[in-house]
Amino acid sequence: MSFGRRNGDRGSVTVFAALAGLALLLVTGLVVDGAGILRASARAEQVAAEAARAAVQAADTRGAAVRIDQPAAIRAARAYLDVASVEGQVRITGPRTVEVITTVHGRYVILGVLGRPGYARVGTARVALAVGGTPP
Asked: Is 6 helix (H, G, I), strand (E, B) or coil?
């Protein structure tokens, strides 16, 4: 009884192992880099919300109507963005509302070897100043 190899199967395990290794690398990249993207999205939203909150706290209470002191609100929001090291835009959208849009950049850890250098995630928050527990 002879258990010889057939010439047609020569090297087929090597090709399978290479393809399986590549597939494993891609799946690992999706998991690791996907988690990084989710963290960046959460950070962009969190920083936007906190910067908007800081801006709304710059309320002008000197007049008959309580409103946002626009220059102070923009300074407060930009100061928060600077401390958080996050790019962002601050807009006063009304007498009592502020909108902050942030951008968080990240680099792919594993998928970067495939030529994808990085990503940017955007977060948006709109906050309204409420006085006396009544929304504007």
From this structure: coil
Number of other residues whose CB lies within 10 A of the CB of residue 91: 15
Query: Which residue type occupies 129?
Result: L
Of the candidates 86, 89, 73, the residue with the CA atom closest to the CA atom of residue 43:
86
pLDDT in tens, 81-103: 999 999 999 999 988 899 999 99
Please check whether residue 82 is in contact with residue 102, taking contact to mean a CB–CB distance below 8 angstroms.
no
* Intervals of the chain under pLDDT 70: 1-11, 132-136
Domain ranges for the chain:
9-128
Per the CB < 8 A criterion, the answer to whether 98 and 126 are in contact is yes
- φ, ψ at 116 (rounded to 5°): -95, 105
Distance CA 105, CA 107 (A): 7
pTM: 0.77
